[in-house]
């Protein structure tokens, strides 16, 4: 079974600074997807960024980028120019790419609570 | 599309009562998932459907929990009888296929007193 570990229960960053959230995972599969979801106080789960394991290039979405290290099974999220609206819980998630096994569910880490200091 | 719609947003019930949570997935999404979020266990999968058929219900905690998907646009998660330890946020999510990201509803916060 796959596991996802987020070792930082809480992080804080000054507004306009950069912060990196860590995520490691354990899998024996070679084909899979990784995601970062944001959960603000409203409770809504919002997709921040996704990465396909077969892609070597790190995904980027505006101020959000990832550092995907497949061999190390590491998938960290970097938030640049942090804004007050970035304050939220951030969850790292894994999904199998094995279409035959049909494992389409997400496996989540326990989350990192990010605070942004004005 | 309005996204994944869940109802109610909040539910407070007494122990022993039946609770029904509802979900409308995004039109055209063939997969529907029910997740539960608690402080202790985080986000965990309860069950998921493909084309209205339950595929994996290994996360359903016990027989008090049941889920149905009578058609492509509606699913229910029922707890009968409810217990205080069922208090959690229950999310519904849907995807088009395995290559796409999951879209979540706003969740139902269930409190059993």
Q: How does this structure look, described?
A:
Chain A is an all-beta fold and 118 residues long. Chain A is 0% helix and 51% strand. In chain A, the strands form three sheets. In chain A, strands 2, 5, 6, 10, 11 and 12 form a six-stranded mixed beta sheet that branches. Chain A is globular and about 50 Å long. The mean pLDDT of chain A is 94. Chain B is mostly beta strands. Chain B is 0% helix and 55% strand. Chain B is built from no helices and eleven strands. In chain B, strands 2, 4, 5, 6, 9, 10 and 11 form a seven-stranded mixed beta sheet that branches. A four-stranded antiparallel beta sheet of chain B has the order 1-3-8-7, with no helix packed on it. Chain B starts with a strand and ends with a strand. The mean pLDDT of chain B is 94. Chains A and B meet through strand 11 of A and strand 4, strand 5, strand 9 and strand 10 of B.
What is the first-to-last residue Cα distance of chain A?
Answer: 41 Å
CA radius of gyration of chain A: 14 Å
Q: Can you count the beta strands of chain A?
A: 12
Structural class of chain A: mainly beta
Query: In terms of per-residue confidence, which ranges of chain A show pLDDT below 50 for 5 or more consecutive residues?
Result: none
Overall mean pLDDT of chain B stands at 94
Low-confidence stretches of chain B: none
Helix-strand string of chain B: EEEEEEEEEEE
Strand residue content of chain A: over 45%
Largest sheet of chain A: 6 strands, mixed
Determine the fraction of residues in helical runs of chain B and give it as a percent range: under 10%
Shape of chain A: globular
State the largest interface: A-B, 22 and 23 residues
Query: Tell me about the biggest sheet of chain B?
Result: 7 strands, mixed
By DSSP (H or I, 4+ residues per run), the number of helices of chain A equals 0
How many H/I helices of chain B?
Answer: 0
H/E series of chain A, N to C?
EEEEEEEEEEEE
Beta content of chain B comes to over 45%
Class from secondary-structure proportions of chain B: mainly beta
Query: What oligomeric arrangement do these chains adopt?
Result: heterodimer
